[in-house]
Amino acid sequence: MGLRSLAADLLPGALQGGLWLARGATAAPRPEVASYAGLQDHLAYLPKGELKLVREAYKFADEAHLGQFRASGEPYITHPIAVAGLCAQWRLDAQAIMAALMHDAMEDCGVTKVELIERFGAPTAELVDGLTKLDKLQFSTREESQAESFRKMLLAMTRDVRVILVKLADRLHNMRTMSAMAPAKRGRIARETLDIYAPIAHRLGLNQVYRELQEHCFAYLYPWRHAAVNKAVQRSRGWRRDIVERVEREVQESFGHARMKVRISGREKTAYSIYRKMREKHSSFAQVNDLFGFRVVVPQITDCYTALGVLHQLYKPVPGRFKDYIAIPKANGYQSLHTTLVSPLGTAVEFQIRTEAMDAVAESGIAAHWMYKGKDTAGDAQQLGALWLKSLIDIQDETRDPAEFLEHVKIDLAPDSVYVFTPKSRILALPRGATPVDFAYAIHSDVGDHCVAAQVNGEAVALSAELHSGDVVEVTTSPGARPNPAWLNFVRTGRARSKIRHFLKTMEQEEAYLLGERMLMQALRAEGLVLPEAEGGDAAAEAIWAQLVRWSGNRSRAELLTDIGTGRKIATIVAKRMARLMIEAGQRPDAITLSLGRFASSAEERGHGVVMLDGSEGASVKYAGCCRPIPGDAVVGYLGRGEGLTVHTAECSVARKLGQRDSEHWMPVDWAEELTRPFDTAVTAVLRNGKGVLAQVAQAVALAEADITHIDMGENRADEVTPLKLVVSLRDRLQLADVLRRLRRCPPVIRVSRVKP
Question: pLDDT class for 146, splitting at 50, 70, 90?
């Protein structure tokens, strides 16, 4: 039984296990390998032939960085050597070590990718390229450059996870040696690390790196708080020493009596984890009672549960503080039994029980694949993070904007998870706060796109309901359903958010294309011409479209029509240009077509020139919230730049102002004979306050067969006279008149009217 004294471990600055910063001590940098000779001592695991290649990469990097120095005054080459040394601790292969040595060569020294391919081969060059930031001169802002560089790095990581391992080693060494930088730069890099790199390390199971990065960031972002927490931790070590020694002795005796072979080590919360717990629970340092704990490592999985029984016989467990991450692993592959016990002196002590394989994965995550290659110790470490890496590819497929991509990735880096079950008992890990919509998209994008309802544990819930661990979730789909823009307000996973946005953008473009085609057809008819078909083998028509697309600056006919539909191009201007091209090609305006465009009288003919509204329009047509038009109102359409068509009532004051300022963006619209849905409008009423007033108003609206979708009573609800604003769903103006008439008959209603801007 290999037992080590935890009391000795609690000395300030003590460190354990490679990159793991333990004991809550300050994040003081450790001695790094600063010369190739020191690095070579760490590379004994590589074959001699590969060591020769690594040495060549070192010489190449040394020449490239000749004359460059770090902010601390050290030669720059000491940084790549230190990064390679950290990668060597994970036993990464020769290509990764070479990439670590040359990771800044392309960015800082002007070395080209072609040169690296010729000298060291394509795989190493791809790794270095994935680690290289994009040229900042290509972007207008630092944020845009940063977002696109992250996007490049993360997508390179999906092809080869060694990219992010080298990048994390690079960032870890930078954080350890950042004290020489200017305070503003230190703060920016620390915030970036805390938001992006530390969560990535956690997501890939690199818990040693995760904890140390957090600790460094805490020290640079909040130095006073970091110092205060550290001081409190060191003060408490004196009185905790007796507790630790007693718990250690009793645990040792218990496992000795049970004749179990175990390895026990102690750990202490880092300063950052203590600070975060104090913030989350609004507690003082004295109220954080689980500052230290023990790790029990056993040979087999069955021994984990046996060890749990031994510990529960020794000390009483704290109810609700047991977690079985062996049966249900965390999303990053972490497995362990967690139990919190009450020590003889009444303090809480956490125990983590795991096998050697689980311990390797718990501390080194995906890097355990290289550390224990060929052994069972690493288990399925190679597959750790595979689902998340796949989700990055899915998000990339639907997200072309780099800032939006980074936003989705940040959402997916949330470390806390809930574990829910499908009806067939499959376990899914989702971020805390996830909803049935997130669950549906985690199953499949088609399930999410057509989700209409959900049941949790057999009971119907709203699609925005928060899921909890252990919930059995079932979603109902409908072929005609599609994503609702309101879902973006509550979904938590980057996958769901990117899928919804992609679907809405695609639908909006399709609808804008059809609307633009209709508008150009109408505008061209006013010139006495018919819109030529783009396809069908008509060479003259194709030539006209090609000239028009070149003139407009668009890349294709579809893009031009979409721009017209979204208001980026004016249909009348494009039509006049097209008419000129058609006349030059020998076509002449037709009097009948001209009269159809300008003087159509029947509803059927008007449908050719006017955008007909039936409620089935998608995102390209919006109904103005200022006047809330309903069927029967005289309406006009405003084609905002990039916003699609917005429908106002003809008497709307907002519409009149827009008309005075931007008259060429207006177009005729009208209501169709057959409507597909009811429309919302706003009604305001002044009531005498009293019991049952709201019920009487609701009953009056119900008697008119209308539906109340929103009620606003304002802030002064206890006054004798209360204003009430209702949003009512109606068929048309006739039903609105019925609603107003019935409301006026209500005894508490003083006056009622439709809301107008």
Answer: low
Note the pLDDT of residue 728. Answer: 92
Higher pLDDT, 171 or 713: 171
The answer to whether 266 and 252 are in contact (CB under 8 A) is no
Fold match, 29-139 / 679-754 = no
Quote the CA–CA distance of 78 and 71 in Å, as a whole number: 12
The bridge status of strand 263-268 relative to strand 292-298 is: antiparallel
DSSP 465-531: PPP-TT-BEEEEE-TT----GGGGGT---HHHHHHHHHHHHHHHHHHHHHHHHHHHHHHHHTTT--P
Asked if 708 and 728 touch (Cβ cutoff 8 Å), the reply is: yes
Number of C-alpha atoms within 13 angstroms, CB side, residue 296? 27
For tokens 């309406």, what's the residue? Answer: 635
* In CATH, 679-754 is 3.30.70.260: yes
- Cβ-count burial 669-691 (b if 16+ within 10 Å, e if not): bbbeeebeebbbbbbebebeeee
Spot the catalytic one: 108, 245, 680, 732.
108
So what's the pLDDT on residue 717?
Answer: 59
Active-site residue, selected from the candidate residues 74, 93, 107, 144: 107
Domains of the chain by residue range: 29-139, 225-382, 496-609, 611-675, 679-754
Q: Dump pLDDT digits (tens) for 406-460.
A: 555 555 555 466 778 888 878 777 877 889 999 999 888 889 988 989 999 888 8
Does domain 29-139 bear CATH number 3.20.20.70?
no
Return d(Cα 362, Cα 428) in angstroms, integer: 20
Concerning whether 170 is annotated as a catalytic residue, the answer is: no
Statement: residue 596 has pLDDT above 80? no
Q: Which strand (E) or helix (H) includes residue 265?
A: strand 263-268
User: Reduced to 3 states, what is the DSSP secondary structure of residue 645?
Assistant: strand
Q: What gap in Å lies between CA 95 and CA 127, rounded to an integer?
A: 8
User: Alpha carbon 131 to chain centroid distance?
Assistant: 22
pLDDT grade for 20, boundaries at 50, 70 and 90: very low
Give kind and range of the element (H or E) at residue 321. Answer: none
CA gap 339, 637 in Å, rounded: 64
Q: Is 350 one of the catalytic residues? A: no
Q: Which CATH class is domain 225-382?
A: alpha beta
